[in-house]
Amino acid sequence: MSLLVWSAVLPFAAWAVLRAGGWTPVWQWVALVAFTPYVAAASAIPLLLALGLRRWTAAALALVTSAVLATAVLPRHFGDGDRPAADGGRLRVLAANLAVGAGDTDVLMKLVRSLDPDVLALQEITPAARERLEGAGLRERMPHVVDRAVDGVWGSGIYSKHPIAERPLIELGRFRQARGVIEHPSGHEIEVVSVHPCAPRYGDRVPCWEQGLRALPRAGGQLRVLAGDFNATLDHRLVRDLLDSGYRDAADATGHGLTATWPQQGWEPVPGVTIDHIFADSRMAIRTFGVHHLPDTDHRPVFSELGLPRFTKR
């Protein structure tokens, strides 16, 4: 019985240690760690087993393991309640991965009309998808654009209601992460990045994924928003490091941090994970967050309304 109990307890303990330490023992761990919320829920099973069989040492380790995993995961289910002063206007941000341009144009345009975003960050936008969206009236609603559309999974773009000046493209492993600085009516200049690093599906893609996340601008100085398909969750060390620089995850801040954004039902035979995010400068208030449905793509669009700090001329 002792062997059975320890065989149940130790894998969960090892998971908790690796997740907390941010280590990557094998490249497959990059994908596996995204499922930490499910492992945290299942960690109660070895605890109950050890208690039921009165294996007290194993039970103590299982209890610590569950506590470590719960501490990492549960805060995402509760809003943080921290609302910085933000009476300098609003910024509404919508981000969507179009799955090689296949995302339903009509439904996306309905989202644009109903949510009324100031900024739309798109990933996997192709020239054909761009033409369909603009033919459906996207440029009339959001006339300013940073266009980095390309055939395949590598394209991205940013549409804006307000004037936008393109910043140097982040391009690693052919994945194009468009950047632009918006001239907001409040007086703020806000950098926006359409985030889409390589997907770490194979070992040779992990370095590209790491480089793509490390290349994202850290928070500080100019206001910034990072929005899109990060191919990573809050259980990845690189994402936590990015947040530690001075961003807040809109889903986590509003208690929606466990709402899955990928895959949409029927696309992949795996449980849903939260890899699409909107990261806002910590000086911004996060007023709302939502996850929406878009047919013909494996990702669910994410939306947030952000409050801006009062503009002060330097």
Automatic annotation (TrEMBL):
Keywords: Endonuclease, Hydrolase, Membrane, Nuclease, Transmembrane, Transmembrane helix. The chain crosses the membrane at residues 29-49, 56-74. Residues 104-299 form the Endonuclease/exonuclease/phosphatase domain. Coiled coil: none annotated. It comes from the Bacteria. Gene3D superfamilies: Endonuclease/exonuclease/phosphatase. GO terms for molecular function: endonuclease activity. InterPro entries: Endo/exonu/phosph_ase_sf, Endo/exonuclease/phosphatase. The keyword Transmembrane applies. This is Endonuclease/exonuclease/phosphatase family protein. It comes from Streptosporangium oxazolinicum.
